[in-house]
Amino acid sequence: MFRATAVRLSALSKRTRRVRVQLLKDFPMFNLYMGQVTKVKPSFMRNYLHNFNGARYVMSESDIDLELLSRSQARDTLAKEKSNVETKTVDRVEASGKVSPKKTSGNADDKTTRESKQKREKPKGILEKNITIEDVKIPGLEL
User: Fold this and answer.
1) Any alpha helices (H) in 50-100, and if so which ranges?
2) Predicted model pTM
3) What's the distance, CA 136 to chain centroid?
4) Contact of 63 with 56, CB cutoff 8 Å
5) Record's family (predicted)?
6) Positive or negative, the Cα torsion across 29, 33, 39, 44?
7) Domain 13-97 has CATH 3.40.5.10
């Protein structure tokens, strides 16, 4: 009696199998950047990353280009530090803005004018318009 092999054709094996790759180019649309070592689906590697020398397979730890990896890690830490500095400066500005009451009243006026401009500029969507049966003309339908 013939027994089909379920492992080769199962959706689970295709869903869980990943390959390790190191990126040689930036792919911002996939949120993948040069030097990064990551696990991706084999079809994604074949169809997108491996084309035009965009990435390479990593079979062992010795296959990883350490120079590219260190640049990638340095870029990541720099981006994290930059975002931390930005949040700290925003917190300081908010704290200083709350101390003086004159600035808050001016900001409130600015906010109301911005909101009114947005309301005027924002076009109504299809569901927000008042459509009646007189506005809609259906050929062959007579009321």
Assistant:
1) 66-99
2) 0.51
3) 40
4) yes
5) Belongs to the bacterial ribosomal protein bL9 family.
6) positive
7) yes
